[in-house]
Amino acid sequence: MRTKYNRVLLKLSGESLMGHQGYGIDNERLGEYARQITEIARGGVQVAIVIGGGNIFRGLQGAAKGFDRVKGDQMGMLATVINSLALSSALEAAGQPAKVFTAINMFPIGEHYSKWKAIEALKQGQVAIIAGGTGNPFFTTDTGSALRGIEVEADVMLKGTRVDGIYTADPEKDPTATKFSEISYDEVYTRGLKVMDLTATALCKENKLPIVVFDMDTPGNLAKVIAGEPIGTLVY
User: Fold this and answer.
1) What is the largest CA-CA distance in the chain?
2) Is residue 140 within 8 Å of residue 197, measured between CB atoms?
3) What pLDDT does 36 receive?
4) Any bridge partners for residue 166, and if so which?
5) Cα separation, 160 vs 162, whole angstroms
6) How far is 3 from 47, CA to CA, in rounded Å?
7) The pLDDT value given to residue 90
8) In CATH, what is the architecture of 7-235?
9) CA 212, CA 231: separation in Å to the nearest integer?
């Protein structure tokens, strides 16, 4: 397998795991993601993964309904752990070893995260799934992804979404929106594009971690990104 990257941090949204259900985890979508991840891992790529929890619970939505913001965010962290366990199970069913790490100590559900343990797992050929965000309230899983990508010394953050890159506007709402093949962190900020939250974007910029935004829901796309095919948008 031809690869442009040796070690990647793959960010998956919780919403994408819903498939067409509208809530929870779609087994078909989960299995498809596991197949794509197994393909690149068997090709020699070291894969760390951070998954959101929006298919189960989102802290900000909870706060809007009257939840204490800190408790709401903690509930969101637990949602990411549920998704991470589901993905690790699907990967192991596909024959790909995986290990779940948690930002807060949740043994025996997952091993308490440390950079060195995660890198050790990656070097052993395991997929390292890092759950629980940063372990702190008021930070999104985008920021968690940026932080973990930098910590495990990934070559790139791959942000798998429902759309095939970054556009001048939301392509689902604006038919005239045009796609960027590449864009700088600063332009993302000045144009106010909703790629990731500002903390995550700033972290990636300061630590020179490039981001590729691509459509993960099309089977085979992950391998194409790994091979360096220009199917998404590069943020640099």
Assistant:
1) 50
2) yes
3) 98
4) 180
5) 7
6) 13
7) 98
8) 3-Layer(aba) Sandwich (3.40)
9) 9
Whole-number pLDDT of residue 2: 80
pLDDT at 62: 75
CA distance 144 to 91: 22
Tokens representing 93?
A: 């069913």
Phi and psi for 53 in degrees, rounded to 5? -130, 15
The tokens of 152 are what?
């495990």
Chunked into runs of 10 residues, the chain (236 residues) has average pLDDT values of: 92 93 94 98 98 89 84 95 98 98 97 98 98 96 97 98 91 90 95 90 97 96 96 96
Dihedral angle, C-alpha 84, 87, 93, 99, nearest 10 °: -40
Q: How far apart are CA 134 and CA 5, in angstroms?
A: 25
Cβ of 68: how many Cβ atoms within 10 Å? 12
* Angstrom distance (rounded) from CA 155 to CA 6: 7
What CA–CA distance (Å, rounded) separates 62 from 213?
A: 27
Task: Output the pLDDT for position 61.
Answer: 77
What are the phi and psi torsion angles at 200 (to 5°)?
-65, -45
Residues in the chain: 236
Please tell me the predicted confidence (pLDDT) of residue 172.
Answer: 81
- Closest Cα partner for 50 from 123, 117, 120, 103? 103
| Side-chain half-sphere exposure of 85, counting CA atoms within 13 A | 14
What was the pLDDT predicted at 227? Answer: 96
CA angle 205, 101, 144 (to 5 degrees): 25
What's 37's DSSP letter?
H
